[in-house]
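Translate sequence into structure tokens.
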Amino acid sequence: MRGTQWVLKNWMSVFLVLFGLFNLLPFIAPILAHLGIDLLANLIYLLYAPLCHQMAHRSFFLFGDQVMYNVEQLPLSLTGNLSSNMLALKQLQGNDSIGWKVAWSVRMVYMYGSMWLFALLYAGISRHRRVKRLPVWAFLLLILPLALDGTTHMISDFSGGLFQGFRYTNEWLANLIAHTLPEQFYIGDGWGTFNAWMRLISGIGFGAAIVGFMFPIIASDMRYNSWLLSQKILNYEMRENRQKHLNNNAS
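Result follows.
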């Protein structure tokens, strides 16, 4: 019971350590691959595969010439079949020329990385004062960019294809703002494009929404459960002490 009580009181520290490791491992995979430790690198890629599409043109690369690549820069021969293209992009981990892929996509890096950073900020603030929960409208407002960006990307990928859909060309945006920005801003998923910025903005919004809305609720539950457990421990110790006293008197 003492161990459980410690976890209840220190749940924020436990979360930061474990979730920090969860965020760090995808970056360990390309480091291991670069060092030639393929077995461990492949294990991390495999572990994170169910959590993310891991498509190479929407992922960061380490130890290469660029941090991100357009699809035409990748050593792949893609077909017109969506499923086979997605699988080929997922399976490409990298090489010594282009570098090695982080084990999940940039969207996941932004979503969960920002969540960890906001949790760290929450931990610092909550040490000095109780943090109020975000109102529901603020939570929904922060989540909305991710919902819109993710949903429109999914529709675009499955209706127009990975490299022809309306969220790949973003011609609608170019027309909306009268082509005022360079053409490379609209097209694709590479560093500095509209899609890349949207993933960053929506990911940060997700992290802020989850921490701001859920963590005050979790903190309140942890405090209450810690208090209940402390009462149980106190009652147990009182019964034990009373029984010892009775035994001593009897002897």
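Note: The chain has one domain: 2-230.
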